[in-house]
Design a protein that fits this description.
Blueprint (H helix, E strand, L loop, with lengths): L2 E2 L1 E3 L2 E3 L4 E7 L4 E8 L2 H20 L2 H17 L1 H12 L3 H18 L2 H4 L3 E7 L2 E9 L2 E5 L7 H12 L3 E5 L6 H12 L7 E3 L4 H9 L3 E7 L2 H13 L3 E5 L4 E5 L5 H13 L9 E7 L1 H15 L20 H14 L5 E4 L16 E4 L6 H4 L6 E7 L2 H9 L3 E2 L1 E5 L3 H10 L4 E4 L15 E2 L2 E2 L6 H7 L1 E9 L17
Parallel strand pairs: 1-5, 8-9, 8-11, 9-10, 11-12, 13-14, 13-19, 14-17, 16-17, 19-20
Antiparallel strand pairs: 2-3, 4-5, 6-7, 7-23, 12-22, 15-16, 18-21
Helix pairs in contact: 1-8, 2-4, 2-7, 3-4, 4-6, 10-11
Bound molecules: nicotinamide-adenine-dinucleotide.
Pfam families: Aldedh
Protein name: methylmalonate-semialdehyde dehydrogenase (CoA acylating)
EC number: 1.2.1.27
């Protein structure tokens, strides 16, 4: 089987002492081996990033911006190749893979504006003859650790801003779909990025720990599940690094009785089952206000899912592909099969669907009368399973959501502007949609959840990423002028 290796200082690298297997989830066939970096190999990547740092941070802003303009062009031009790589290792349908690429391109477009983004501030005459200005300087080598579910978009969330700010990067993509990161690194270099500025190490905890423990890595961006995010945050912070660690999610979509229920059902089906539910902003809980709303919604969602086409992501007819691994598929199935015993009502049982071949497919499930305390409600399932929680009032809906440990995204469906405005005010969640089920902010805003969905104080990409990937320096200046000087041992005052 072909071996997927690391990319260090512009070259393929890695002896592959340890390896993992990369499957095509649609066929279940093992298609590649992937090298798992040793501590030494990861340190080589960090050394390459450190060596590239002085020249890259000294590169003019205009030249840096030029790389992003060219990268944008290349991403658009090669999107079919890149989407095919995503689909063959992740399984999502090609149109979804292209959607991920286009959302990633937003971050490249944002980074191309770096000349504006890196402007400092200046105050003249803060004291007689004294001026103050601030500059934003790169933090140094940045470690980026990414999840399997967006093998292009999430690396672009991080690398575009980090590199634009003058940093160099060691990217550790998911070992489940590692090829897209190498393709991205090649495109960056084709766009003019010097070797060593973006290095890719493949692997697992060994590579991640080497990044977290290296004194040469100054900042860590992580996106993945909450248990790993917690440990990454603690270890990176204990080692004195700046860290942002985005975790898992359980996103609730509230449907008020006055909502357009057909539009809400369409939105719920799209947001729950798109990408087989393997999106951190997927809707996994439908909160129906009032039994009448719930009964109508459940019927409408059930009617719609009956018409979904599940199959190989390369088939243009497929609307939903397989899950990432066989083990994950079986775990998702266990939540559905266990739901009835927990007291919920399984309206559509996706585990009963049959598929040809050995792909990691599962049908979509709809589970009614779910409540907190049931595993199907409490856990992030990360599969095509939509739970319905029935509540009696708007207030109960808000209390339910605010009590969830996850707080990535949420949405309210209503025709009432007052209700929507109050929801925006009351809800304790990082990203909110009003009649928009997946409110992923555009690249000019930052992305991030609250509570167990993000550890650290900076959201990712957008303006907060410029803050995260730079250190501010403030310079106070006095130039000799013609006024006489004198000795003064008092504390310098600006008055
Ligand atoms: P994961 O936490 O298993 O893995 C994420 C990364 O961490 C991978 O690169 C993996 O190799 C590495 N890793 C795994 N175990 C590790 C360990 N013990 N020590 C160090 N590193 C380790 O997540 P995943 O399954 O790849 O991705 C799905 C998860 O990511 C879901 O929970 C999803 O909600 C979350 N996610 C969150 C966001 C967000 O923005 N909040 C976005 C995308 C995905």
């Amino acid at each position: 089987m072909p071996l997927i290796r690391h990319h260090i200082n512009g070259q393929p690298a890695g002896a592959a002492e340890r390896t993992g297997t990369v499957f095509n989830p649609a066929t279940g066939v093992a298609q590649h081996e992937v090298a798992f970096a040793t501590t030494d190999e990861t340190q080589q990547a960090i050394a390459a990033a450190s060596a590239a740092l002085p020249a890259w941070r000294a590169t003019s802003l205009i030249k840096r911006a030029d790389v992003f303009f060219r990268l944008r062009h290349l991403l658009v031009e090669r999107q079919d190749d890149l989407a095919a790589i995503i689909t063959s290792e992740h399984g999502k349908v090609l149109s979804d893979a292209k959607g991920e690429i286009s959302r990633g391109i937003e971050n490249v477009e944002f980074a191309a504006g770096l000349v504006h983004l890196l402007k400092g501030e200046h105050s003249e005459q803060v004291s007689r003859g004294v001026d103050v200005h601030s500059v934003k300087q790169p933090v140094g080598v940045v470690g980026c650790i990414t999840p399997f579910n967006f093998p292009v978009m999430v690396p672009l969330w991080m690398t575009a801003s980090a590199i634009a700010c003058g940093n160099t990067v060691v990217l550790k993509p998911s070992e489940k779909d590692p090829s897209a990161a190498l393709f991205l690194a090649a495109l960056y270099e084709e766009a003019g990025l010097p070797a060593g500025v973006l290095n890719v190490v493949q692997g697992d905890k060994v590579a991640v720990d080497a990044i977290l423990d290296s004194p040469d890595v100054r900042a860590v961006s992580f996106v993945g599940s909450t248990p790993i995010a917690t440990s990454i945050y603690a270890r990176a912070a204990a080692n004195g690094k700046r860290v942002q660690a985005l975790g898992g999610a359980k996103n609730h979509m509230v449907v008020m009785p006055d909502a357009d229920l057909d539009a809400a059902a369409d939105a719920a089906v799209s947001a729950a089952y798109g990408s087989a539910g393997e999106r951190c902003m997927a809707v996994s809980v439908l909160v129906a206000v009032g039994d009448e709303t719930a009964d109508a919604l459940v019927a409408k969602v059930a009617e719609r899912v009956a018409g979904l086409t599940i199959g190989d992501g390369t088939d243009a007819a497929s609307e939903m592909g397989p899950l990432i691994t066989r083990e994950h598929r079986d775990k998702v199935a266990s939540y559905v099969t266990g739901a009835a015993a927990e007291g919920a009502t399984v309206v559509v049982d996706g585990t009963a669907d049959e598929f040809d071949g050995d792909g990691f497919f599962i049908g979509v499930s709809l589970i009614d009368r779910v409540a907190p305390g049931m595993k199907v409600y409490d856990d992030e399932i990360f599969g095509p399973v939509l739970s319905v929680v029935r509540v009696e009032s708007y207030t109960e809906a808000v209390e339910l959501i605010n009590a969830s440990p996850f707080a990535n995204g949420t949405a309210v469906f209503t025709r009432d502007g007052g209700t929507a405005r109050q929801f925006e005010f009351d809800i304790e969640v990082g990203m909110v949609g009003v009649n928009v089920p997946i409110p992923v902010p555009i690249g000019a805003f930052s992305f991030g959840g609250w509570r167990n969905s993000l550890f650290g104080d900076s959201h990712i990409y957008g303006p907060e990423s410029i803050h995260f990937y730079t250190r501010s320096k403030v310079v106070t200046t006095r130039w000799p002028d013609h006024t006489p000087s004198q000795i003064d041992l008092g504390f310098p005052s600006n008055h």
